[in-house]
Design brief:
- The protein has about 280 residues and is α/β, with parallel strands linked by helices.
- The chain has a single domain (about 10-270), classed as NAD(P)-binding Rossmann-like Domain (Rossmann fold), CATH 3.40.50.
- It has helices at about 20-30, 40-50, 65-80, 105-130, 150-170, 190-195, 210-225, 235-245, 245-270; strands spanning about 10-15, 35-40, 55-60, 85-90, 135-140, 175-185, 230.
- Strand 5, helix 5 and strand 6 (about 175-185) form a beta-alpha-beta unit.
- The longest helix is centred in the middle third of the chain and has 29 residues, at about 105-130.
- Bound molecules: nicotinamide-adenine-dinucleotide.
- Nicotinamide-adenine-dinucleotide binds near residues 40 and 116.
Length: about 280
């Protein structure tokens, strides 16, 4: 394990038992930070932290619970001292066209991705302002710029999270806090496996997908450089961010991308098992 660098930070990561969150925690610890891994899946997050050595600790946090947020901050302070950085990463989706999802599924997505993250940001703003410093990093999505079939409510929560994030950052401009938002594209985690299982989400396979470690690098770099907003990959991400502003253009382009995604999804599914990647 590397020695603790001068700028070692105390970081809370949500949704850290799997996927992008687990990769963020691993890389942050490798770079000398101390990380409280949190997740609604307590058993999995304890196992994950147990593999990362003494600079990792873990506790259960369902981001929908305001009390859970206070407990997680207190557990982190007890383990490592004041929280320097909050990485709000936890998120879910239920796949399918909006008309095919039930009210409970729409509500779940909003309660976790939007309201849960809002609760975390508000908890962090209060506590970090009182301590005089802090950095809030929200892991959002490239879908916050694009209207995507198969993801209507998910896209809605990510558009909403981006608007909330930048609004709070402006409200707090005279305070001591830093705010960064990071937008991953398709990333090979359990979430993408879920999307592969549903043809309604074929658009996710229109472009190449990335490893969670690549997204983790962008997030952990951002802890040091504190950019306002990170799109990934940098060039295609910028193009998508601008194109998404034009709904008439999107009505033409997205169906073409969806058709390409259907072809690529079919190709991935029909590849011989020996050549098929473990994760799409
Ligand atoms: N995978 C992708 O293609 C992709 C693309 C863009 C953005 N993202 C975003 O990245 C983030 C991480 O996604 P991932 O792909 O690693 O997903 P994942 O499903 O692999 O992991 C998500 C983690 O969040 C946890 N979680 C779920 N509900 C929770 C809750 N209420 N409270 C606390 N933890 C909870 C899960 O237990 C899981 O460990 C999400 O915000 C997601 O929207 C993912």
């Amino acid at each position: 394990m590397r020695p603790i660098p001068e700028k070692s930070q105390v970081i809370v990561v949500t949704g850290a038992a799997n996927g992008i969150g687990a990769a963020i925690a691993r890389l942050a610890i490798d770079r000398g930070h101390r990380v409280m891994l949190t997740d609604v899946d307590e058993e999995a997050v304890l196992v994950c932290a147990g593999e990362l050595g003494p600079r990792a600790a873990a506790c259960r946090l369902d981001i929908r619970s305001a009390e859970g947020w206070s407990n997680a901050f207190e557990a982190t302070e007890a383990a490592f001292g004041t929280v320097d950085v909050l990485v709000n990463n936890a998120g879910i989706t239920h796949t399918g066209h909006a008309r095919d999802l039930g009210p409970r599924q729409h509500r779940d997505i909003v309660e976790v991705n939007l309201l849960g993250t809002i609760t975390g940001v508000c908890t962090a703003v209060e506590r970090m302002t009182a301590q005089g410093h802090g950095h809030i990093v929200n892991v959002c999505s490239m879908t916050s710029f694009l209207p995507l079939p198969g993801y209507a409510t998910y896209c809605g929560t990510k558009h909403g999270l981006r608007a909330f994030h930048h609004s709070v950052a402006i409200e707090e401009r005279d305070g001591p806090l830093d705010f960064t938002i990071v937008h991953p594209p398709s990333t090979r985690t359990g979430m993408l496996d879920q999307e592969m299982a549903d043809p309604a989400c074929a658009i996710s396979f229109a472009e190449k997908s990335y490893a969670p470690e690549q997204i983790a690098e962008a997030v952990v770099d951002a802890i040091t450089t504190k950019p306002v907003e990170v799109v990934f990959p940098p060039l295609a991400g910028r193009v998508q961010r601008i194109a998404g502003v034009f709904p008439r253009l999107m009505r033409r382009v997205i169906p073409l991308a969806e058709a390409r995604g259907r072809r690529q999804r079919a190709g991935l599914l029909s590849a011989p098992a020996a050549t098929r990647p473990e994760r799409f």
